[in-house]
Amino acid sequence: MVNPQRNRHCHPIHLELSGVTGSVTMSVSHSSKLNKSVREQYMKLPQGDQVQVTYVWIDGTGEGVRCKTKTVDHEPKCIEDVPEWNFDGSSTYQAEGSNSDMYLVPVQMFRDPFCLDPNKLVMCEVLKYNRKPAETNLRHSCNTAMEKVNDAHPWFGMEQEYTLLGINGHPYGWPENGFPGPQGPYYCGVGADKVYGRDIVESHYKACLYAGVKICGTNAEVMPSQWEFQVGPCEGITMGDHLWMARFILHRVCEDFGVVATLDPKPMTGNWNGAGCHTNYSTEAMRKAGGLKHIEDAIEKLSKRHNYHICVYDPRGGKDNSRRLTGQHETSSIHEFSAGVANRGASIRIPRQVGQEGFGYFEDRRPSANCDPYAVTEALVRTTLLNETDSETRDCSKN
Asked: In what residue span(s) does the GS beta-grasp domain sit (predicted)?
C-alpha cells in the first residue's frame, strides 16, 4: 500500500500491483517541498488598490506556455482595460536576439486562482516587431475563420488527456523497475491501487472553476497516471482561449505539487493507451431537429480532407499523432478515414444518442493531446462551413 506521507517526502516505498513488485521513489521537485504555510503568510497581506495581472502566452514550440506578471493601478473590468505588454522573444524560441521584442496583446481575462481576487490571468496573442502574428500565434487566423462563420454558431467541447510524470520523466506512481498491472481497472477508477494524483486533478478542477474556465468534467483515464478534463461547450474562438488557460492552470498546479503534466500523445510505448484531445463539434443546424443530415454532410466533407486535418492536428504535422493513431488502443489508423455510431475506433464518432434522436454533435477523435485548439477548431470550420477543399497546410515541423 502506498503511504502518502512518505510519498510526499520522496522516500522509497514498496509497491505491489498485479504481481509486479518494485521499489518506487516518487520523484517530485525540490520547490514543492518548501513550507507552504510560510508562503500563505505573505499571500494574506493586503495589496491596496493595486492588482497583479499575469500575462500568459504560447511560446515558439507551439506547445509550451509562458507567463509574467505586472502591477496595474486598478482592477481591470474587461479585456480592454488590460494594457499591451512585451517580452524577449529570443528567450522563448520566437525571435532573434538582434530584434527580440515581441508584443503581448490581451484577448481573454480570467480570475487568478493562485493569487486570488482581484488579481487576473490574461490569455494573450503574440505579435512580432512588425505587428504581424508570430508563427505560433494560430489564434489570429482562427479568429478570422470564426468571424466568417459566426451565423452558424459553431460550438466545441474538447477532451484534454494528459499524463502525470515525476520530474525524472517516469509516470507518477508507477514502479521504478517494472510496470503496473495491465489496463482495465484504471479508467474512472477509485482506490489507491488504481489512481495516482487525484489531489492534483481536484485542485486543477477547482482552480479552473474559480478562474472562470469552462471546465465541465474530469475522469481518470485508461492508462494509470493518465487523466482527462473536458472544456466546453464554447462558441467559436473562446474554445481555444479556455483550453489554453486550462492547460496553463494545470501546469501551474502541478508545479505546486512538484510533478509534471505531459501532453505527449504516446508517453509510454507498448500496450498502453495514448493521449488525445477528442473534439466535439456542432453547428446550430446540427443541434436542431433533422440535424443528423447536416452532421453527415460535414463528415462527408471531412472524409475528403483527411490528410489536411492530420497535418494540423498535432504541432509536428502529424508526426506526433503517427505514434498514437495506430488503429489500436481506441484509435483509428492515421492512414485511413472512418466514421461510425458509438465507434471509438473511428476517426469520427457519432454518439449513439445523436444517432437515435437525429440531431446533436459529432466527435473528431483524431486531434492529439498536444494539438493547438485554435488549429483544430479552425480546420473544422474551414472544411465543414467554409467548404475549403485544398490540401495546402502550414508545415508545423518547421516552427
From this structure: 51-131
